[in-house]
Amino acid sequence: MGIVIFSGVKLSHFLILILIFSLIFIISWAFVLKDYQKQRVVSFLNPQIDEMGISWNINQSKIAIGSGGLLGKGIGKGSQSQYGFLPEAQTDFIFSTIAEETGL
């Protein structure tokens, strides 16, 4: 936001753009997004809301990264990734898997 202001864009144009995007967000939230999509957004912003439900994946990902520590557990020895706590560990959660097994 600071770069846009310092680049010479008029403040009035910038504020109008913010207003337009705010209106689009409000209208989308109220009329376009379905309930499960709203839950995903809320879960992304606050993962502690439903730790055993919609926030399960992100919490397990954090546990995997933390349990790997600095040096990791070893290739193929990560508990979160090998025992199925991370769904799709080889694709969607590859960063968490690598961090758990090889460390940070």
Automatic annotation (TrEMBL):
<keyword id="KW-0133">Cell shape</keyword>
<keyword id="KW-0472">Membrane</keyword>
<dbReference type="GO" id="GO:0051301">
    <property type="term" value="P:cell division"/>
</dbReference>
<dbReference type="GO" id="GO:0008360">
    <property type="term" value="P:regulation of cell shape"/>
</dbReference>
<dbReference type="GO" id="GO:0005886">
    <property type="term" value="C:plasma membrane"/>
</dbReference>
<keyword id="KW-0812">Transmembrane</keyword>
<dbReference type="Pfam" id="PF01098">
    <property type="entry name" value="FTSW_RODA_SPOVE"/>
</dbReference>
<feature type="transmembrane region" description="Helical">
    <location>
        <begin position="12"/>
        <end position="33"/>
    </location>
</feature>
<protein>
    <recommendedName>
        <fullName>Penicillin-binding protein transpeptidase domain-containing protein</fullName>
    </recommendedName>
</protein>
<dbReference type="GO" id="GO:0032153">
    <property type="term" value="C:cell division site"/>
</dbReference>
<keyword id="KW-1133">Transmembrane helix</keyword>
<dbReference type="InterPro" id="IPR001182">
    <property type="entry name" value="FtsW/RodA"/>
</dbReference>
<dbReference type="GO" id="GO:0015648">
    <property type="term" value="F:lipid-linked peptidoglycan transporter activity"/>
</dbReference>
